[in-house]
């Protein structure tokens, strides 16, 4: 509370010089009464000013705006005009704006000279001198105490005690309101932390603030308010008669207020009839209600800020996790880029680099799991209407983009190392080119760089093998590497003959009920055409053997309607009646043409080489010629070779997927010829018009051809 308190003026109040009884004049203005007492002479003007200042501040603003009516009793001994003038002077100098009029109760022996002395001064308020009997024209009798022959019950000591209790209550209520305002100001402050430790500290501090809110002594204030109400209700005197001398024992007893009843209801009415006390009680009740409302508002603000602080903590945690991921990615990207161009100069180095990179890639996948978790957290925060949702979205997009760039670099590095392991001798070939042949080196460099970018590596290898013989070494190592991955073959590798070609195809077995294309790795040897399935075990590629065809018992259908990259291999009497017919789809038309050409060459070479079908070819005898025929695509047959073993003699040269009737009729003619087993064959090659096909040449005929 601001201003003076009853406790500060307790000594002056106990002098009983002036009362604020709660009475009202006929206008409704509050009454300020100076009973007849000799103590007025001892009161200093300054003390009177302080006392009046306190009493004038008590009524409500509505009552004060009507102006006070001051009643001064000059009856009795010691009440002279001098102290009346002192009172009027203090009122004129300090409270003229609050005073409506001053009523002076004259004694019976009041002289005209005294009246003239009092009225000689000009005051800003009206001054009236009346008898005690005429006082009811100013205020009704129940608004006047017994000191003024009225009926109002008033006990100055009870009034003083009540004012002390009221002011103590409002003092504590005001202190409580100040504490609530301070807490509310703290809760309204948006001082969000900049990092995780500060955010955690803010949450701890906020939890302590809730304890302060819940521990506000509001229940004690409620209890004090109840005691105050009981004290005010007990202000009525217990007796049936109102006291007639509130001023003290100095005053003679005035007329009693007859008709007063002693019932509690009457006492309550008289106490409740004091509008100043009623206003104080109502103000106290409103203050208690405001305190409770303030506490509830504090709890709501606390909960609202708790959500914000939790979101701030989540935001800073998310930001911290993102920074850790950024640091990891950028650091490892720098380390990764330092060795990015290293691909190894030989197989062992390339394989070591690949293994090391694979371990790094696996470790990076663990980081990928963490990044996915962080991005999931970001999505949940955005969906929960986070106050920093836009910042979270921006940071999450940046993290996702940074990780994808890093992962793309890993994938590129993986692809480069795979090529390096598959073709480890390419650089060795480049370095081994003689210094006097720079054109070969430049062509090899261009070919090698093109090979890394081209999806069909086998075609590129064979194309460059055609251009320069040195490139054939790369192709040989490639074939040998794939052959080393072959497993579970029912024929030993040394009995298969030299490997001529190997490549990936999509294969259809026409004898299967469900004709579904399957990925197959196909190996062409000098004695067999072998089919294998690619499998991966622990990221290691292997080729699982599936089936094989003998090149001496095989035919070719070059053109399959509907797809220019398809061709067929078959065994038996004809393509449509064959025991085994497999359709192969190459990766490109160029690959198909290479295979068809090589298949025909191998079939010719096997047919006329004089090699037993049951024994492997002697490496010392045939390795040179077979190697040349299987690697050098530009090797041309001599004119005599074309006459002896023309491609047209293999009735599958340019046929479609149909029976070769010429081949069937040739078989019959050859079998029925009387010279087919005789010795009438010419000792040197002669042109023949027979459609010689490996399928129709038996072992005896082969012996005679040799």
From TrEMBL:
<dbReference type="GO" id="GO:0007412">
    <property type="term" value="P:axon target recognition"/>
</dbReference>
<dbReference type="GO" id="GO:0005085">
    <property type="term" value="F:guanyl-nucleotide exchange factor activity"/>
</dbReference>
<dbReference type="Pfam" id="PF13716">
    <property type="entry name" value="CRAL_TRIO_2"/>
</dbReference>
<dbReference type="GO" id="GO:0030036">
    <property type="term" value="P:actin cytoskeleton organization"/>
</dbReference>
<dbReference type="InterPro" id="IPR055251">
    <property type="entry name" value="SOS1_NGEF_PH"/>
</dbReference>
<dbReference type="GO" id="GO:0016319">
    <property type="term" value="P:mushroom body development"/>
</dbReference>
<keyword id="KW-0344">Guanine-nucleotide releasing factor</keyword>
<dbReference type="Pfam" id="PF00435">
    <property type="entry name" value="Spectrin"/>
</dbReference>
<dbReference type="GO" id="GO:0005737">
    <property type="term" value="C:cytoplasm"/>
</dbReference>
<dbReference type="GO" id="GO:0035025">
    <property type="term" value="P:positive regulation of Rho protein signal transduction"/>
</dbReference>
<dbReference type="GO" id="GO:0007422">
    <property type="term" value="P:peripheral nervous system development"/>
</dbReference>
<dbReference type="InterPro" id="IPR051336">
    <property type="entry name" value="RhoGEF_Guanine_NuclExch_SF"/>
</dbReference>
<dbReference type="InterPro" id="IPR018159">
    <property type="entry name" value="Spectrin/alpha-actinin"/>
</dbReference>
<dbReference type="InterPro" id="IPR001849">
    <property type="entry name" value="PH_domain"/>
</dbReference>
<dbReference type="InterPro" id="IPR047054">
    <property type="entry name" value="Kalirin_TRIO_PH_1"/>
</dbReference>
<dbReference type="Pfam" id="PF22697">
    <property type="entry name" value="SOS1_NGEF_PH"/>
</dbReference>
<feature type="region of interest" description="Disordered">
    <location>
        <begin position="235"/>
        <end position="277"/>
    </location>
</feature>
<dbReference type="GO" id="GO:0007480">
    <property type="term" value="P:imaginal disc-derived leg morphogenesis"/>
</dbReference>
<dbReference type="GO" id="GO:0007411">
    <property type="term" value="P:axon guidance"/>
</dbReference>
<feature type="region of interest" description="Disordered">
    <location>
        <begin position="613"/>
        <end position="689"/>
    </location>
</feature>
<dbReference type="InterPro" id="IPR001251">
    <property type="entry name" value="CRAL-TRIO_dom"/>
</dbReference>
<feature type="domain" description="PH">
    <location>
        <begin position="492"/>
        <end position="604"/>
    </location>
</feature>
<dbReference type="InterPro" id="IPR011993">
    <property type="entry name" value="PH-like_dom_sf"/>
</dbReference>
<feature type="compositionally biased region" description="Basic and acidic residues">
    <location>
        <begin position="629"/>
        <end position="645"/>
    </location>
</feature>
<dbReference type="GO" id="GO:0050770">
    <property type="term" value="P:regulation of axonogenesis"/>
</dbReference>
<dbReference type="InterPro" id="IPR036865">
    <property type="entry name" value="CRAL-TRIO_dom_sf"/>
</dbReference>
<dbReference type="GO" id="GO:0031234">
    <property type="term" value="C:extrinsic component of cytoplasmic side of plasma membrane"/>
</dbReference>
<dbReference type="GO" id="GO:0030426">
    <property type="term" value="C:growth cone"/>
</dbReference>
<dbReference type="GO" id="GO:0045887">
    <property type="term" value="P:positive regulation of synaptic assembly at neuromuscular junction"/>
</dbReference>
<dbReference type="InterPro" id="IPR002017">
    <property type="entry name" value="Spectrin_repeat"/>
</dbReference>
<feature type="compositionally biased region" description="Low complexity">
    <location>
        <begin position="253"/>
        <end position="273"/>
    </location>
</feature>
<protein>
    <submittedName>
        <fullName>GD13500</fullName>
    </submittedName>
</protein>
<feature type="compositionally biased region" description="Polar residues">
    <location>
        <begin position="666"/>
        <end position="679"/>
    </location>
</feature>
């Amino acid at each position: 509370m601001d201003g003076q308190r009853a406790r500060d003026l307790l000594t002056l109040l106990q002098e009983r010089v002036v009362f604020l009884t709660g009475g009202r004049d006929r206008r409704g203005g509050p009454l300020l009464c100076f009973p007849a007492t000799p103590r007025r002479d001892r009161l200093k003007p300054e003390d009177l000013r302080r006392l009046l200042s306190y009493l004038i501040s008590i009524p409500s603003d509505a009552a004060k705006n009507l102006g006070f009516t001051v009643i001064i009793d000059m009856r009795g001994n010691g009440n002279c005009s001098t102290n009346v003038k002192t009172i009027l002077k203090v009122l004129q100098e300090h409270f003229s704006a609050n005073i409506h009029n001053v009523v002076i109760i004259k004694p019976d022996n009041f002289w005209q000279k005294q009246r003239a002395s009092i009225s000689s001064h000009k005051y800003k308020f009206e001054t009236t001198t009346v008898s005690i009997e005429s006082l009811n024209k100013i205020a009704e009798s129940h608004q006047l105490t017994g000191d003024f022959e009225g009926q109002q019950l008033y006990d100055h000591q009870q009034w003083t005690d009540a004012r002390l209790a009221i002011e103590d209550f409002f003092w504590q209520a005001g202190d409580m309101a100040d504490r609530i305002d301070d807490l509310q100001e703290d809760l309204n402050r948006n001082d969000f932390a900049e990092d995780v430790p500060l955010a955690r500290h803010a949450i701890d501090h906020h939890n302590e603030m809730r304890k302060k809110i819940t521990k506000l002594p509001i229940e004690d204030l409620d209890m004090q308010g109840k005691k105050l109400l009981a004290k005010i209700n007990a202000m009525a005197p217990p007796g049936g008669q109102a006291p007639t001398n509130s001023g003290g024992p100095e005053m003679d007893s005035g007329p009693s207020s007859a008709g007063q009843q002693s019932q509690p209801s009457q006492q309550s009415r008289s106490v409740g009839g004091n509008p100043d006390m009623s206003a104080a009680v109502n103000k106290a009740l409103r203050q208690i209600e405001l305190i409770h409302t303030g506490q509830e508002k504090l709890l709501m603000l606390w909960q609202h800020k708790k959500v914000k602080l939790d979101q701030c903590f989540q935001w800073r945690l998310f930001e911290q996790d993102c920074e850790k991921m950024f640091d990891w990615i950028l650091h490892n990207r720098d380390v990764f880029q330092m060795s990015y161009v290293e691909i190894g100069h030989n197989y062992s180095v390339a394989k070591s680099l690949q293994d090391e990179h694979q371990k790094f890639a696996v470790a990076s996948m663990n980081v990928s799991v963490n990044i996915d978790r962080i991005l999931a957290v970001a999505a949940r925060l955005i969906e929960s209407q986070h106050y920093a949702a836009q910042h979270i979205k921006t940071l999450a997009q940046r993290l996702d983009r940074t990780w994808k760039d890093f992962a793309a670099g890993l994938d590129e590095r993986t692809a480069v190392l795979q090529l390096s392991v598959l073709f480890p001798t390419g650089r060795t070939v480049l370095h081994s080119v003689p210094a006097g042949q720079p054109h070969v080196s430049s062509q090899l460099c261009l070919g090698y760089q093109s090979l890394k970018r081209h999806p069909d590596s086998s075609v590129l290898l064979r194309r460059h093998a055609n251009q320069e013989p040195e490139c054939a070494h790369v192709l040989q190592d490639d074939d040998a590497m794939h052959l080393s991955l072959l497993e579970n073959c029912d024929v030993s590798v040394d009995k298969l003959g030299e490997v001529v070609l190997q490549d990936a195809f999509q294969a259809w077995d026409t004898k299967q009920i469900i004709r579904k294309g399957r990925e197959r790795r196909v190996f062409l040897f000098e004695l067999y055409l072998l089919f294998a399935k690619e499998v991966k075990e622990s990221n290691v590629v292997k080729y699982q053997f599936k089936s094989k065809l003998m090149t001496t018992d095989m035919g070719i259908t070059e053109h399959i309607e509907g797809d220019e990259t398809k061709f067929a291999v078959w065994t038996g009497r004809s393509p449509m009646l064959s025991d085994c017919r497999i359709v192969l789809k190459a990766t490109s038309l160029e690959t198909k043409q290479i295979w068809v050409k090589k298949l025909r060459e191998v079939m010719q070479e096997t047919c006329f080489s004089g090699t037993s079908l049951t024994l492997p070819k002697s490496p010392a005898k045939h390795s040179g010629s077979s190697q040349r025929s299987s690697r050098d695509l530009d090797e041309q047959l001599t004119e005599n070779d074309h006459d002896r073993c023309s491609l047209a003699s293999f009735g599958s040269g340019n046929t479609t997927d149909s029976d070769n009737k010429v081949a069937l009729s040739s078989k019959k003619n050859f079998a029925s010829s009387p010279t087919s087993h005789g010795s009438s064959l010419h000792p040197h090659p002669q042109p023949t018009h027979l459609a010689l096909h490996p399928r129709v040449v038996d072992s005896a005929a082969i012996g005679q051809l040799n």
